[in-house]
Design goal:
By secondary structure, this protein is an alpha/beta fold. The chain has twelve helices and nine strands. It is globular, with a radius of gyration of 19 Å.
């Protein structure tokens, strides 16, 4: 069992001087990111499939313990029936498989318009997915959460050993803390509330891993109660031998890594965890400075 923590991206200039060392160049973002966190939600693949040379470069910059979790491209997930894209999906899997041991679960995010009426399409598509490649599935149409559709979907995923993505947007819907946010951060918070699906939290594990997407509030204190609850839940899943993949988003992207760090602390308070690589980097940096 392993807890993997990460952000949706690694290429964010706003982390230079805080999460990344002062003066870090864009070409070095991935290397610095992978020295601190243990996974990334590969949003970049949602928009374009990387070239083989790019994947080779990425793999060279990631430690063996790091996991890249690529999002299935929108040309498949957001283009009507999934069955029309079986061959495209197979090619995508073949390309991403070049990451080898660094390839984590892939992530199929379905649009809000993809309703339970398409259940047969989803079932047929998942039947073609190679079993050796882990897959997490996120549904966002409200109908998927109604009984008995909810139970039928979970059973299908359980049979396929695929995870049902949990997305927690409750923190950004809390009004407490909003008034003290600066104007631009408050605007991004409002936009996030409009964009992110407000769906039920159903932390039912359907595979040998958990896949959680946490949308945090920019006022860090607002997150405390949610982080405590998730810390307890994730610790229980780890005790049962499951892996857990947790990806932290925030309307203020500058805070994404710190939400990851808070998750590690909350889970670590319930179960013994390896030191987060970020903490080791900080310790090494402090030691280097002390010796100079």
């Amino acid at each position: 069992m392993t807890l993997y923590l990460g952000c949706p991206i690694w290429s964010f200039k706003g982390w230079v001087g805080s999460f990344y060392p002062e003066g870090t160049k864009a070409a070095d973002y991935l290397r610095e990111y992978a020295r601190r966190l243990t996974a990334v939600e590969g949003n970049t693949t949602f928009y374009a499939v990387p070239a083989p040379a790019t994947l080779q470069k990425w793999a060279a910059e990631m430690p063996e313990t790091f996991r890249f979790c690529p999002k299935v491209p929108r040309t498949m997930s957001h283009a009507g029936n999934l069955m029309y894209h079986i061959e495209e999906a197979a090619r995508f899997v073949e390309v991403m498989d070049q990451l080898g041991e660094r390839l984590g679960p892939m992530f199929l995010q379905l649009p809000p318009s993809y309703s339970p009426k398409a259940f047969d399409d989803l079932k047929e598509f998942l039947a073609t997915w190679p079993p050796r490649i882990r897959l997490a599935v996120e549904v966002r149409h409200p109908g998927w959460f109604d009984s008995p559709t909810n139970e039928t979907l979970s059973q299908l995923l359980r049979e396929r050993q695929m995870a049902r993505v949990v997305i927690d947007t409750r923190p950004i819907r809390r009004l407490s803390g909003d008034k003290i946010l600066e104007g631009s951060t408050y605007l991004r918070l409002v936009q996030a509330r409009e964009r992110k699906s407000d769906v039920p939290i159903l932390p039912e594990r359907t595979a040998d891993f958990v896949f959680l997407r946490y949308i945090g509030h920019p006022q860090m204190g607002v997150n405390a109660v949610f982080l405590d609850d998730w810390g307890q839940y994730l610790a229980s899943q780890l005790r049962e031998g499951a892996d857990a993949y947790v990806f932290c988003h925030c309307p203020d992207e500058r805070l994404d890594p710190w939400l990851c760090r808070e998750f590690h602390a909350r889970v670590g308070a319930k179960i013994s965890l390896p030191v987060l690589p970020w903490d080791q980097v900080d310790a090494d940096t402090f030691e280097q400075r002390r010796l100079i």
